[in-house]
Amino acid sequence: MYVITGITGQVGGVVGRTLLEAKKPVRAVVRNAGKGQEWSERGCDVALATMEDAASLAAAFKGAEAVFVLLPPIFDPLPEFPEAQAIGAALRSALDAARPGRVVYLSTIGAQASQKNLLSQHSIIEKAISTLPMPLTVLRPGWFMENCGWDVAPARERGVIPSFLQPLDKPVPMVATADIGKVAAEILQEPWSGHRRVELEGPKRVTPNEVGATFARLLGKPVRMEVVPRESWEALFRSQGMKNPLPRIRMLDGFNEGWITFEQGEAGTRKGSTTLESVSKDLM
Q1: Against a cut of 0.90, is the pTM above it?
Q2: Of 26, 45, 132, which is closest to residue 88 (Cα–Cα)?
Q3: Could you give all domains of the chain from N- to C-terminal order, each with its CATH number?
Q4: How confident is the model over 84-114, as pLDDT tens digits?
């Protein structure tokens, strides 16, 4: 049995569909029965669990050949990340109790960074599960290409895309959620021993200016990128409802300053095949 958390999202959905196409038995882990209906109709077992509840997670993981762990996103965490601390403790307890054959944890580029930032939530989880006895792969993807979905409206309406990634000619390691899901499904089916990291990015690194050029081609109109000044970020994020914007600001600093990066460098990453142009077409 292959147990998939986060199956109702983009990445988890790809993992689930890929395994079903390979004729593998799948158990979908969802927060409520309504969200599991689609997967039940596809032939999956459905288990109800939340990431904060070790008992429900352990029951969902019981008897699994492999488990895929994807956390619900927390974009505005409390200081010191108590949400991730609680999830890390519950997840470790559940995996230790259920003892699945192997585990794939979806982490992030830059989880090794010592500077506190939004991605530190994954650093906390990685540490929490680092002493588990079963084979563990930590999958660290780059910046999601689907984040460009936020750029569609301003590109269409004004021909200008505000960019927090800067300078505009700095290549950024990006990857499509389709590639993340496919690679995760492949890894789940592989035998391996011990603990390892797999870092994943797309076929080529992409600058913000190239994002603008891609949108211009697809929309058939001029589109340019515009730097959002660093000094305006905190007020802007607070105006959007964030209570603790510093982790997000520091994450963006990490990409821009280069300390959020792949531990093994570009040469050591696995490469997906989906291009930014392909993802952008779907977003539009």
Answers
A1: yes
A2: 132
A3: 2-145+174-201+259-272 (3.40.50.720)
A4: 999 999 999 999 999 999 999 999 999 999 9
